[in-house]
Sequence to fold (233 residues):
Amino acid sequence: MLLEAINASLTGRITPAGSTSSTARPKPVEPIQQPTRDTGQSIGDRVSISPEARSIQAAKKSENSEFSTYDKSGRSSAGANQELTQEEQQKVDELKKRDQEVRTHEMQHKTAGAPYTSGPTYEYENGPDGKRYAVGGSVDIDTSEIEGDPQATIEKAQKIKAAATAPAEPSSEDRAVAAEASAMEMRAKQDLQKEQTENTEENSKTGQTKSGFAQYAKAAYAGTMAASLNISA
Fold:
């Protein structure tokens, strides 16, 4: 008993004799959970951004969100309405003038050569202002002869020649087409002349045959009359 009293005084606990004692351990404290927002981010996970950082962030956002398309000239569509430099404006003026000349030139071909001409097709160049300008063009024309009809071929050749020389300043290709049309017209005239000659000769032969038959008929009739007179005599 004395020994148990000493042990009890040392441990600070007194237990009845014959019973077993156990040391009670303190229950661990669970950490307090922070309430969260709908985004799942803890309220305590807040970061303060300085005004300088906000400015940099806004600039990057603006840079990434701005998109512009570029044409073949390299000028963006957003910058097409920007003021042009003096050199660029001069280039635009030249392209406008060329565009008007090309369109007038090709329309003159088309109008003068109808119905043997097609619609004009154009070649384009992009200007510093982002617009397209016609810098070249062409019109297809049918230069085939009309088989079996020289007179119609002559009229067609004259139409082709008029179409080729319609513009005030024909190109080298235009003059070449005109020369080809002149050659076609000459061949058709030769064919027409040959045809007319053959028809004349045929008509002449037919006329001679008819004339010979008329003379024979007249002679036969005269003989008959003579015989009749002799009989009656």
